[in-house]
Amino acid sequence: MSKPSHIAPPVKATVHLGDVTSAAAGLLSVLAPAEPDLVLIFASPSTALPALAAELRQGLASGTRIVGCSSAGELSGEGYLNGTAVAIGFPARSFRSSVLVLDELSRLPVSRWMTGLRDLVQRFQPDPGRRLFGVLLVDGSSQQEEVLVATLDAALPQVMVMGGSAGDGLDFAQTFVIADQSVLRDVAILCLIETDLEVRDLIFDHFRATDTRMIVTRASPAERLLMEINAEPAAEEYARIVGVPVSDLSPLVFARHPLLVNMGGRYFVRAIRQQTEDGGLLLMSSIDTGAVMSLGLAEDLTEGFEAMLRDLPATPSLILSFDCILRRLAMEHAGLGGVIRDIFDRYNMAGFNTFGEQHGGMHMNQTFVGLAFLDPERP
């Protein structure tokens, strides 16, 4: 059966980055015929992204918005990827968008952000007959996601907002977002989008809390630095609890043994980014002195994930996906690359590996969040 003339689902394109001009041509061969109102693009290595965005700007209609970010890796129907660009186009026939840059993250101009967000909705004038949502891309080195998403939730309580923090592999050095051809740092970009398609938000992590409890006895929330656990140097105590020498601590160990905090009856991961020279643990989310943490235990990495996707009421035309880099490390270490590639292909997923995920007013780690665009013609 052909699709109704008014339904135009998102399209995705993936290219391997070598020559930027050739890569852009590959993306444009898919994006341009869709006549997109908005294009999201994620790429690594990040050095190619500005030039790639400039090539897309030349090949797309002048009104098309181009928004993207550097990534810690990409994902598509080919599985987890590196050295690629993944682009998603939202056809103007079924989507309408507006873009707001929330700048000076390090200064936290919350009042100005709230004014800008309310003005954005006022100008946008959402159609009550369409679904409204927001996509957030954040400079992953800003370390201000908690305040940012709380502000979004307060200013736009009626809008479902989700997204991810830009990455740069596992270097944790330089991340950025782009708007058209402009490279922006210390900012977040909110894309306010409405559509004719049915949409469903998705959230999944593969951990449960164990009975092992820890107390944060010294921390610097602003720096996301955990200095003491149980009145002992944080790295030493964490290594003792998980049963490895301090010298063996690595991103893979952190991915397999996360720290969990309970908020509102739900556990959220506070992922460890790296060990510091003075024996602390640098996290990917903030933590307060006095917080009670639980050690997480990994459960099946893919079974619950696929069950969540099977429960969707219709086959997705595409799932916009934000997946933590530490989840990717755990799955690759477990030899599940082929399994996850089949899932990504079957459910037409596209997105990037993040330094943090945002959903429902919360900033989290080691979690998958996504937005499924459902095809009403497919069971």
Question: Can you walk through the features of this model?
Answer:
This protein is α+β, with helices and mostly antiparallel strands. It folds into two domains: 11-204 and 303-374, no CATH class; 208-298, no CATH class. The chain is built from nine helices and 26 strands. Strands 14, 15, 16, 17, 18, 19, 20 and 21 form an eight-stranded antiparallel β-sheet that branches. It has a six-stranded mixed β-sheet with strand order 1-6-2-3-10-11, covered by helices on one side. A hairpin with a 4-residue loop joins strand 14 (207-220) and strand 15 (225-229). Helix 3 packs across helix 4. The longest helix is centred in the first third of the chain and has 15 residues, at 20-34. The protein is globular and about 60 Å long.
Question: What is the element layout, followed by pairings?
Answer:
Elements: E1 11-16, H1 20-34, E2 36-43, H2 49-59, E3 65-70, E4 74-76, E5 79-81, E6 84-91, E7 95-102, H3 110-124, E8 131-138, H4 145-155, E9 160-165, E10 177-179, E11 182-184, E12 188-195, E13 198-204, E14 207-220, E15 225-229, E16 232-233, H5 234-242, H6 251-256, E17 259-263, E18 266-270, E19 272-275, E20 281-283, E21 292-298, H7 303-310, E22 316-324, H8 325-333, H9 337-346, E23 349-354, E24 357-359, E25 362-364, E26 368-374
Parallel strand pairs: 2-3, 8-9, 22-23
Antiparallel strand pairs: 1-6, 2-6, 3-10, 4-5, 4-23, 7-12, 8-12, 9-24, 10-11, 13-26, 14-15, 14-21, 15-16, 15-20, 17-18, 17-21, 19-20, 22-26, 24-25
